[in-house]
Amino acid sequence: MTLSALSYNPQTAKSFIDEVIERSHQNLYACYQCRRCASGCTVGEETGITPDYLIRLVTLGDRDAAVDNALVWQCVSCYTCGTRCPNNIQSGRITETLKKMSREEDVIPLNPNIAYFHDAFVQGCTRWGRVNEMEFMGYYELKNIGKHMLSFQFRKAYEEIASQIKLGRSMFKQKRLHLKLHTSRGRKEVKQFYKIAVKKKASLKKERRSQIKNRQE
Ligand code: SF4
Ligand code: SF4
């Protein structure tokens, strides 16, 4: 029996599962734990958490474990789980929803590099309407190397720089790395979308903080 099962609170569990259903548009109540999704999950073995287990955490109302685990951050949105599910549950949408919740609650991901990757992607898309490899890698590596430097792990920082130079050279040779910055035609619209999303995120964050405060009281 899991800790969540022992501390099960029907009221908080219901409000959490309903929130995940509403935001992911997936009917978690339909899951009967057949584990067909688990056998096909691309990252399940590496993360140690499979989609069925994640759904179980949500239905048991274990919010902390559901928003802060490796599958939420390492899911590659391949949707293999959804194609195998007899109830058409797209767990990739659930991981995406939980990832958003985790950001709203300022949870530091188990692997911060994944959050740097997301940030680098969003930064580039907002500015240019698309990703430019040089800028993307620069932003990502600055954060990554900065993290090593701040924790006095100079050897790791050096190794990271060396490996990125090697990767950059190889990509450049294969014409996969472009020095010129490219823009997309709809970048103004992308910027607008981003602004709307930031506003929405701020109001959700406020709402979530007050919910957390209420839960702790
Ligand atoms: S395949 Fe569908 S019903 Fe079966 S455990 Fe996975 S999500 Fe639940
Ligand atoms: S979408 Fe995510 S959870 Fe589903 S199989 Fe792919 S990696 Fe696993």
How would you explain this protein's 3D organization?
With 217 residues, the protein is an all-alpha fold. It folds into 2 domains: 3-106, Alpha-helical ferredoxin (Fumarate Reductase Iron-sulfur Protein, Chain B, domain 2, Orthogonal Bundle); 112-184, no CATH class. The chain has 13 helices and no strands. The chain is globular. The relative contact order is 0.09. Bound molecules: iron/sulfur cluster (2 copies). One iron/sulfur cluster binds at residues 40-43, 51, 75-81, 91-92, 95.
- Tell me the radius of gyration: 20 Å
Characterize the overall form.
globular
The overall pLDDT average reads 88
Quaternary: single chain
The amount of beta strand, in percent, is under 5%
Instruction: Detail the poorly predicted runs.
Output: none
For the record, the CATH class of the largest domain is: Mainly Alpha
Let me know the number of strands.
0
Main attributes?
2 domains
Write the layout of secondary structure elements.
Layout (H helix, E strand, L loop, with lengths): L2 H4 L3 H15 L11 H5 L3 H4 L3 H9 L3 H5 L2 H5 L5 H5 L6 H14 L7 H17 L4 H18 L3 H20 L13 H30 L1
Helix pairs in contact: 2-9, 5-9, 10-11, 10-13, 11-12
Bound molecules: iron/sulfur cluster (SF4) (2 copies).
One iron/sulfur cluster (SF4) binds next to helix 3 and helix 5.
